[in-house]
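Subject: complex prediction, re-run

Hi both,

The earlier run crashed halfway through, so I resubmitted it with identical inputs.
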Amino acid sequence: MGKTKRIFTLLLRLMAFAATLSATIVMVSSHETASFFAVSFEVKYSDTPAFKYFVIANAIVSIYGFLVLFLPSESLLWRLVVALDMVFTLLLGSSISATLAIAQVGKKGNSSAGWLPVCGQVPKYCHQVTGALVAGFIGLIMYLLLLLYSIHTILNPLLLQKT
Amino acid sequence: MGKTKRIFTLLLRLMAFAATLSATIVMVSSHETASFFAVSFEVKYSDTPAFKYFVIANAIVSIYGFLVLFLPSESLLWRLVVALDMVFTLLLGSSISATLAIAQVGKKGNSSAGWLPVCGQVPKYCHQVTGALVAGFIGLIMYLLLLLYSIHTILNPLLLQKT
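This time it finished cleanly. Structure:
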């Protein structure tokens, strides 16, 4: 029973690591050269602070996820991992929200602020940002599952011993 | 000792409730009529999906924070509160990030997307959004403190009993 659980959480962590790593790579590699009335310009993720934040957050969470994979199962550090999981889930969720907010303006524009949608000009760039968002979102769901699982296993002994 | 801790967490929850409630109110009441070349238009929070999300998230967290204030200290539901605190902190953090991302574009614009800064035209509106963000941020910090405190008190008995 204990072994199945360990394999289950390890699989979740592997998938979370893969998701955040691919979110980082897809976002970093997103760029497109668009031409607009004979003026050509390049759009990159680094033009938008929210996208830079997304890359940094996903890179940090990927490094953390990679390191945790090699933590031996007897280590006392696992108690710290619950707190760290929480902090990094928060970081991931906040970076996805910021990116989503900007991507929504890019797709639909904002008429009251006079911001026009730009996805028509740079469709490939928009698709890549959407892909990065989906990957980041999958990573977030994995970390949420891990967190709920940790809370479940932590609360169980407390419920049994009735403090 | 137990009583001091209870008063401390109650104070934190009261402050968190006050912060998220004021964030909601300040954001909902934010609007400004700007005139631009004899054309006058009104900007409201509901023009921007990210701001609507901010209002909804802060309202939900306020209601939750209000209800928790009346939970008797002997209740078994406190174990659930840890998980709920986590979920609502995530919600709050994500709404603040989305709002911050849009507010940053409003303040500085985004030259690669051709979005111009709008805070020059609607300074009062911008100040209100900033105020709502600050209040939301204070609420987030309170909830983070509560979460870290919960994790600390939950992990402590586990460390002592050495499972």
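The interface with chain B takes residues 41, 43-44, 47-50, 79, 82-83, 86, 89-90, 93-102, 104-106, 110-116, 118, 144, 147-148, 151, 154-155, 157-159, 161, 163 of chain A (CB under 8 Å).

- K.
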